[in-house]
Amino acid sequence: GRGAMDTGDIPAIKSLVVLDSDGKRIVAKYYKNEFANLAEEHAFEKKLSEKTVRTNAKNEAEIIMFDNMVTVYRNSADVWFFVVGHQAENELILVSALSALVDALTAALRTTPDKRSLMDNFDTLLLAIDELVDGGMILETDPTTIVNRVSMKGSDGAPTGAEAAFTEQSFNTMFASAREQLARSLLK
């Protein structure tokens, strides 16, 4: 290791990767220069995909350990979200970062993230990752805060439709209506 100068107590991640169901990269951010080149990154991503593609991680995060790393991941439609940390990192922190990203994207896109919605709203995806992690440091794990910042930044340039008008109010309304639907379906 590089000693105490590195990160101190700020939770840090090595990489954040989003892959499609074929293990192809949608976006990948490597914060620790773990790999020498793109080929090594792709090999790692292939391994991530092979180890997880048959598992069911739709509703909550799953954890796998290999190569001295802890990886938490979630599946949404045809995409897989991975947050990779050092094996000594607290996986609950990694899980909270992962959940914040998936929840923020779900809210900002107003739909379950899938490959098409992420590709169509690639700027939103990148902004959400930037609000979540800076240089490997986890900055924010509250999805509402991330969404609000993304929508503010999105509206600096040309407003990108829905997310430019996005407010905390609509976030709360959306969750309330989802909760009502759930309650109704349980009462049937």
Task: Sum this structure up briefly.
This protein has 188 residues and is an alpha+beta fold.
How is the secondary structure organized here?
Layout: E1 15-20, E2 25-30, H1 38-52, E3 62-66, E4 69-76, E5 79-86, H2 91-109, H3 115-120, H4 122-132, E6 133-134, E7 137-138, H5 143-154, H6 168-187
Antiparallel strand pairs: 1-2, 1-5, 3-4, 4-5, 6-7
Helix pairs in contact: 2-4, 2-5, 4-5
Account of the protein in words:
The chain has 188 residues and is α+β, with helices and mostly antiparallel strands. The protein has one domain (13-154): Beta-Lactamase. The chain contains six helices and seven strands, in the order E-E-H-E-E-E-H-H-H-E-E-H-H. The protein has helices at 38-52, 91-109, 115-120, 122-132, 143-154, 168-187; strands spanning 15-20, 25-30, 62-66, 69-76, 79-86, 133-134, 137-138. The strands form two sheets. A five-stranded antiparallel beta sheet has the order 2-1-5-4-3, sandwiched between helices. The protein has a two-stranded antiparallel sheet with strand order 6-7. Strand 6 (133-134) and strand 7 (137-138) form a beta hairpin. The longest helix has 20 residues, at 168-187. The N and C termini lie far apart (57 Å). Mean pLDDT is 84; it is low at 1-7 and 157-168.
